[in-house]
UniProtKB/TrEMBL annotation:
One of its GO terms (cellular component) is cytoplasm. This is TauD/TfdA-like domain-containing protein. SUPFAM superfamilies: Clavaminate synthase-like (SSF51197). One of its GO terms (molecular function) is metal ion binding. It comes from the Bacteria. GO terms for biological process: sulfur compound metabolic process. Pfam families: TauD (PF02668). Belongs to the TfdA dioxygenase family. It comes from Inquilinus limosus.
Length: 300
């Protein structure tokens, strides 16, 4: 048990990442600074027993930075900064929102730096969220693989929302409004495969199986073997933690150094959470691309 502030009780969730946190008292500037530091230290923080109205969640999100709205997703009419992440009890055998390993909306030019998810109604069992530590995933690679990946970019796109849509045999929850067949979602954006976290200075893998399409300068077929290896490597059990929800819980995670996965194992039960996101910056590569280009020119 550790504490950055006497009002903040922090207990690690797993060896790699995650912390359970109990708060005592209102979140003043000093306590918020301790929460922010806990997020840098643990990557995912799980705060218990809160009673947040939607406007409270929005206000807390703004303390982290500018709010980022999720593209192609319907937000709450009365609270346009919030997405209601919902699956109804009568929706069975459907794909749920976030039901694959990913970093939120990594196809944006400036992907969100953090996401906040507040539990309003949760099933009696199931509906957990898994997280994976992309610092540890990078650190566990061989020196040769690190050297290769440090200089690579990958192409991300909002393909699930684009003209290809989702496979016709996949039933998708109707409780969340999702736009499909949007041509602009097919646009590819280059991001470094290995990014440097602006606060910690650590290197993290930045690829995910939903939005990463290929390596820059390669075809999807050429990219697939290495991407498949990285996807499997990134979610090794020792890099993960599991968050079990109760109503009134708030999870905050850093999208720049984690992946997450919503477990879809609660058919016949209602689940409702409110989600907001914080605007991020353009990912910083492990090797500045100007340096890389100068080196390549010198070798030519």
């Amino acid at each position: 048990m550790t504490s950055l502030d006497s009002r903040l009780d922090i207990r690690p969730m797993a060896g790699s990442l995650g912390a359970d946190i109990d708060l005592a008292g209102p979140v003043d500037d000093a306590l918020f600074a301790a929460i922010r530091q806990a997020l840098d230290d643990h990557l995912v923080i799980h705060l218990h027993g809160l009673d947040l109205a939607p406007q409270d969640l929005v206000a807390l999100t703004r303390r982290f930075g500018t709010i980022s709205r999720a593209p192609y997703i319907t937000h709450m009419a009365e609270h346009p900064d919030i997405v209601a992440v919902k699956k109804s009890a009568d929706e069975r055998k459907v794909s749920t929102f976030g039901n694959a390993w990913h970093s939120d909306f990594s196809f944006l030019d400036q992907p969100p730096m953090a996401s906040l998810l507040y539990a309003v109604q949760v099933p009696s069992h199931g509906g957990d969220t898994l997280f994976a530590n992309m610092y540890d995933a990078y650190d566990a690679l061989s020196d040769g693989m690190k050297a290769l990946l440090d200089g690579l970019d990958s192409m991300h796109s909002g393909k699930p929302y684009g003209t290809g849509g989702v496979p016709g045999n996949v039933a998708v929850s109707k409780s969340i409004g999702i736009e499909r067949n949007r041509p602009e979602a097919d646009r590819e954006v280059a991001h470094p495969v290995v990014r440097v976290h602006p606060a910690t200075g650590r290197k993290a893998l930045f690829i995910n199986s939903i939005y990463t399409q290929r390596f820059a300068g390669m075809t999807a077929e050429e990219s697939k073997p290495l991407l498949d290896f990285l996807y499997a490597h990134a979610i090794r059990p020792e890099f993960t933690c599991r968050l079990r929800w109760k109503a009134g819980d708030l999870a905050i995670w850093d999208n720049r150094c984690t992946l997450h996965y919503a477990v879809n194992d609660y058919d016949g039960q209602d689940r409702l959470l409110y989600r907001t996101m914080v605007q991020g910056e353009r990912p910083v590569p492990a090797i500045p691309r100007e340096t890389l280009r100068s080196f390549e020119t010198a070798l030519a």
